[in-house]
Structure formats: structure tokens, C-alpha cells
Amino acid sequence: MRNTRERTGLVWAAWAAVLLLACTSAGAEVRYTITDIPTFGGTESGVSAINERGQAACGRKDSSGLWQGFMWEDGVFTELHLNSSWNLSLPKGINEHGMVSGWANHVSAGMSAQLWNTTLGTVIDIGIPSGQVRSQGQDLNDDNVVVGYSLPQFGVDSWRAFKWTADNGIIPLANFGGEHSYAMDINNSGQIAGMGETASGARRACLWDPDGTPHNIGGLGGETWAWGINEAAEIVGRSELDNGDEHAFFYEPVGGMQDLGTLGGAYSIAVRLNNLGHVVGNAEIDNGDRHAFLYKDGVMTDLNDLIDPASGWVLLKADDINDSGQIVGCGIIGGEQHGVLLTPIPEPATVGLVVLGSSLAALLRRRRRKR
Length: 371
What we know:
Blueprint: H1 2-24, E1 32-37, E2 44-50, E3 56-61, E4 67-73, E5 76-79, E6 86-94, E7 99-106, E8 110-117, E9 122-127, E10 134-140, E11 146-151, E12 160-165, E13 169-172, E14 177-186, E15 192-198, E16 203-208, E17 214-216, E18 224-229, E19 235-240, E20 246-252, E21 256-261, E22 264-273, E23 279-285, E24 290-296, E25 299-302, E26 314-321, E27 327-333, E28 336-344, H2 348-370
Antiparallel strand pairs: 1-28, 2-3, 3-4, 4-5, 6-7, 7-8, 8-9, 10-11, 11-12, 12-13, 14-15, 15-16, 16-17, 18-19, 19-20, 20-21, 22-23, 23-24, 24-25, 26-27, 27-28
Helix pairs in contact: 1-2
């Protein structure tokens, strides 16, 4: 009799989970909880990057109008160290060791790429290449290789891509014969995504090999920039179409480049992607406003449709996504621009499996106790 009751209990638990899956998983969308990354006394804030540990590289504009960098982790605010005579900082990337890349401004020497060690509270001034006047750090990988770009002279829009290593310092990256180049992101294999200019002045999305060899990965018709790269060398960015519109793209080494479309307007840009191929960025909606988006499973979705409509938030930009699906960027809340962290709520299918597993485990524990 006892075994019959136990078997019956197991059957009912299984049927309950199956019904839950059937009723809620079909067509269900992942929704997100919102964590406000505040201004901490400033006028606005934003988040540029997040790692797998949930550490986020952030910036806030202080009361004097200068940006100050900080790292956010589980509600704890850690200001990025600045040496004396530096008056602003802006982080752009963060790796799995909590190292942060970006740039800072010296009151007399100007803008220079930086690498912050958030564990030790120290900073390395990457510096400015010889003969150049400023530099900006962008992203970095887990080997602490930083990529960015530098400016040869003031008054000329002619930035030059570089990578930096602790052993070799700043290493210029070749382009396609033109003046301009930008290095925007780097993966753990040392492959770099950015933009290189041809001798005729055409700007093209560029993939640099670890040895610095540049490759033109094509475009959708006109000027094309690459912004993000993952461990599979899948790349995202934006490209002009023949009609002058600019669309986000997704590139893979085998399948080539794909137009991701927009949210109803003429513009979109894909900024980063994770190792699952999920893409984030921002795009114009029908009225010309720009909203943050997630591109997943072949569909671009306005992230504002995936949060509580009563939250008061308008999500403007999504700048990074980790493999857990956490997304960072910025939005408007209460009339101010704040940084934002979106954390996915488990899908109903996952909840159903958890319910089933918990029910089965509880029944098995009861059965062992009764023996």
C-alpha cells in the first residue's frame, strides 16, 4: 500500500510539472528584473561592460560634469583609482579577473588609455604612442591585452588602432592602406574586431589575427564597423545599406554577414554578443527614438517589452551581455539617465523542471526515512 501511494505521488508530481510546462513554456518570453546603477551623487550614469562574475564597469558624471569610473558588484560601488593630476576616467571593458580597461584624462598631458586592477586598487597608465597626442583604451581579454586607438595630432580625425601588452607595450595595428583604424574588442584567442580604412577612404569592418594581420569581413553595402567579437570569432557591428540606412549586423566565419534589421526605424547598431550568439545594441523604433534591443533566435526584440511596464524605465542602450544572459547599458528613470543591469528571470520551462526535480527529491527523501 505504501509503495502504491508513493508511486501515485510520483505520477502526480510528474503530471503537475508536465502541465506547467505545457501551459507556460509555449511562446513564453524571457523577462528581466532591473537593477538600478545609480549616479552616486552625480547627474547621470551608465554601464559599459559585465563579466561572468556579474562585475560591471560603470561610469557616472559628477556634479562638475566630469565622468568618473567605478566598478559595481552586488550593490558595492568601488571607485577606479586615479593618480594625482588625473581628473576624469571612463571604463570600457572588464575581464574575468576584474581588470578594467578604458581611459582617463591628465590635466596637462591629456587623454590616455588605462588598465585598472580593481583587486589591488591600482592603475597602469598605458600611455600614448610616440609621436601621437592621445589614446583611448577600449576592451581587453583575460590575458590583460588591451585594444584601443590613438590620435596622431589634434584637429585631425585620424585615429590609429593598437593593442597593448605588459611585455611589449603599445603595438600599432595595420589597416587596409588608409589613415583611419579603430580596435574595439578582443577575444581570448587574441583576435580583434574593429574598423580599417582602405587607400580610397572606404571604412570596412576588420578582423585582426593574433599576429596583427587584418581581414576585411565585408559589409551590407557601405561603411562598416565591427564592435564586438566572441570566442567563436563571431562579430557584430553596424553597416550602411545602399540606401544610406545603417543596420546592425552579425558575422560568422562560415556564414558571412547577416543584416539584423531594426525596431522599425532606419538605424541600428549591434555592440556586443556573448558566446551563445545573443546580441545586444540599440535601434530606432517607429518614431525615431532609440531603444535597447536583444537579438536572439533570429528575432530582434525591444528590451522595453521584456521588463515590467510599470517599472518606469525606458531602456535606451544595451552595451554588453554575458553568458548568463545578464545585460548592461543605460536608460531613463525619473527623468535621469541611469546605468542598468538586467537579469533574466528563469523561463517557465526551467521553473517546471525545478518543480519536478524538487517534488521527486522530496518524495524519495520521505521514502528513505520510512524504511
